[in-house]
Amino acid sequence: TPTDERTPLDRLPLRAELRGKVPYGAPQLDVPVLLNVNENPYAPSDALVADVAAAVAEATRGLNRYPERDAVALREDLAAYLLRESGVALDASRVWAANGSNEVMLQLLQAFGGPGRRALGFAPTYSMYPDYCRDSHTRWVTEPRRDDFTIDVERAVGAIADQQPSVVLVASPNNPTGTALDAATVLALYEACVDACSLLVVDEAYAEFRRPGTPSALELLEGRPLLVVTRTMSKAFALAGARLGYLAADPAVVDALQLVRLPYHLSAVTQAVTRAALRHTDELQAEVAALRGARDELVAWLRARGHEVAETDANFALFGRFADRHAVWQGLLDRGVLVRETGPDGWLRVSVGTPAEMDAFRTALEEVTA
Ligand code: PMP
């Protein structure tokens, strides 16, 4: 007879490094105000829904066949978008796409990491980086950021020389701090990477939210074959549910990733949905502009209330510091507002929501910290 009893994992031949681990788990709780995973709060418009639905219907007619393996049309559309967004012209041979930038980065580690190799990052940073490393048998090493979460360039260059990593992984804007890199820092890291024959991966998941004057590393790609810039449709494009991330790099990097990608990794439905969403770039860029404005207002409000806020170029802010951050997190949750308990002790991270969600957050925080 079947029983409800679950087989303990240690009865399975699980890899030693996975024993006792917990899966990635931002809480998915059913509360009215979700400000915990840096999503775009605006659901797709009716026009976008109709366009996506038609594109999916069309794709469905061909679902008996495997999808276009190299997703060339999609990569061309992504290149056209990057030209529009950052003014950088790229051929589709320099763009690669996968199921979320999570998968893009795992593929990068599968191709460029591996046993006996290291990947270097700057803590605090995105919590998935150590997991990509573990899953590709790459050793993850970190250098601390400064107290204001910027990167100490001299120290970083020294660490690259000492550690000789095959991959340097740096998010700009960084999660969970919001910190963006300036061009001089990227160039200094790049020079150190050239000396160490290391791939410099700049994770620009939140790039569209950058403030005027903050550059994109895309502008530095030309003539730098060891530079990789990753992007995603999950944040600015309000398409987290579709799972589409991509990168821009030298065509040789794209060739390398094709060695490790699974056959037909990007479904025909995913390709069709993304191409339809890209046709709505105008309306999505207007939303992003509104979210940037709301971000600046949020930061100003928090500072006016006496909170510390890390400089942010993203659609979220790291704020604090609280003697008992868990109590503040719980107090907000009790009032229907879910933020993220992440980053160094004392800090909380809040995503930028709709005006109504921001009101709810402000009211709840005032009550909790009164
Ligand atoms: N990079 C950073 C810095 C992120 O914060 C996230 C999402 N939280 C990702 C990459 C992954 O996003 P996705 O897989 O949805 O593209």
Description:
There is one protein chain. This protein has 370 residues and is an alpha/beta fold. It has 2 domains: 25-45 and 282-369, Aspartate Aminotransferase, domain 1 (Alpha-Beta Complex), CATH 3.90.1150; 49-279, Type I PLP-dependent aspartate aminotransferase-like (Major domain) (Aspartate Aminotransferase, domain 2, 3-Layer(aba) Sandwich). The protein is built from 11 helices and 12 strands. It has helices at 46-60, 72-86, 100-112, 129-135, 153-163, 183-196, 251-260, 268-278, 281-304, 325-334, 355-369, and strands spanning 33-34, 95-98, 118-123, 139-144, 167-171, 199-203, 227-232, 245-248, 308-309, 316-320, 337-338, 348-351. A 7-stranded mixed sheet has the order 2-8-7-6-5-3-4, sandwiched between helices. Strands 9-10-12 form a 3-stranded antiparallel sheet, covered by helices on one side. Strands 1-11 form a two-stranded parallel sheet. Strand 3 (118-123), helix 4 (129-135) and strand 4 form a beta-alpha-beta unit. Helix 1 runs antiparallel to helix 8. The chain binds 4'-deoxy-4'-aminopyridoxal-5'-phosphate. 4'-deoxy-4'-aminopyridoxal-5'-phosphate binds at residues 38, 100-102, 126, 171, 175, 203, 205, 232, 234, 240, 245.
The number of domains: 2
Radius of gyration computed on alpha carbons: 21 Å
Global outline? globular
- Round the mean pLDDT to the nearest integer and report it: 96
Based on DSSP secondary structure assignment, what is the total number of beta strands? 12
Give me the CATH superfamily of the largest domain: Type I PLP-dependent aspartate aminotransferase-like (Major domain)
Largest pleated sheet? 7 strands, mixed
Q: Report the sheet-strand fraction.
A: 5-15%
Oligomeric state of the chains? single chain
Helix/strand-derived category reads alpha/beta
Alpha-carbon distance between the termini?
56 Å
The number of helical elements comes to 11
